[in-house]
Inverse folding.
């Protein structure tokens, strides 16, 4: 069964600090992996996409990594801001068809001043 | 560019009542889907559609109906609401032509069943 596991479930950090969120998956075949950010009371929005051949990709203060051999991805947030407080959802797609998406349960990040 | 629009944003129902959650997208996406999100849990797929006239069940379809008469609209119907259907519902769409599988979500509809 395709599964996506995220850790930690929740995380509290101080503003300005860095943090790393983890995503392990057993989805096969693998097409790509996305990290979504979901602000409280809003719908998820894609932050970054990782394909099989990509190891690292940055989007501002967000850096995603992918190790296709160990089936692990991480999302690193640098110099956190209060606006980074959100839920971060890892989604792995078995095909380019969005209907083949497997969702993680998300990591809830709280950034405190 | 509106993207994916969901209505209503909030709704309170009594047990046994029926209602329809509306979803519309203006991006000409083939794929549309409905998810529910419960506290502490991830998004769970209810129903999805790969084009007008084509729908299929997801992970948690019981108690919900859908139809897709046009590319733009994908309403979700609750036939006889139950307290277990209290949740936040998200509609999403995606393009097969672009081929990356990115899902574009609406802002959600928060449903409470008393």
């Amino acid at each position: 069964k395709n599964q996506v596991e995220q850790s930690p479930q929740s995380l509290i950090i101080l503003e300005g600090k860095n943090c790393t969120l983890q995503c392990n998956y057993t989805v096969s075949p693998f097409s790509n992996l996305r990290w979504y950010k979901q602000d409280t009371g809003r719908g998820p929005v894609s932050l970054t996409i990782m394909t099989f051949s990509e190891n690292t990709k940055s989007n501002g203060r967000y850096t995603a990594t992918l190790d296709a051999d160990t089936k692990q991805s991480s999302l690193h947030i640098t110099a956190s801001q209060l606006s980074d407080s959100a839920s971060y959802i890892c989604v792995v797609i078995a095909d380019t068809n969005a209907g083949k998406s497997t969702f993680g349960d998300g990591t809830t990040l709280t950034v405190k001043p | 560019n509106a993207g994916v629009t969901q209505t209503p944003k909030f709704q309170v129902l009594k047990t046994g009542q029926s209602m329809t959650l509306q979803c519309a997208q203006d991006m000409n996406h083939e794929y549309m889907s409905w998810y529910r999100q419960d506290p502490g849990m991830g998004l769970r797929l209810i129903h999805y559609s790969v084009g007008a006239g084509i729908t299929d069940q997801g992970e948690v379809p019981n108690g919900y109906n859908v139809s897709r008469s046009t590319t733009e609209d994908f309403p979700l119907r609750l036939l006889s609401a139950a307290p277990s259907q209290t949740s936040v519902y998200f509609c999403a769409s995606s393009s097969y032509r672009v081929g990356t599988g990115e899902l574009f979500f609406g802002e959600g509809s928060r449903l409470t069943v008393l």
Observations:
- The interface with chain B takes residues 31-32, 34, 36, 41-46, 49, 89, 91, 93, 95-101, 103-106 of chain A (CB under 8 Å).
- The two ends of chain A are 41 Å apart (CA to CA).
- The CA atoms of residues 8 and 107 of chain A lie 6 Å apart.
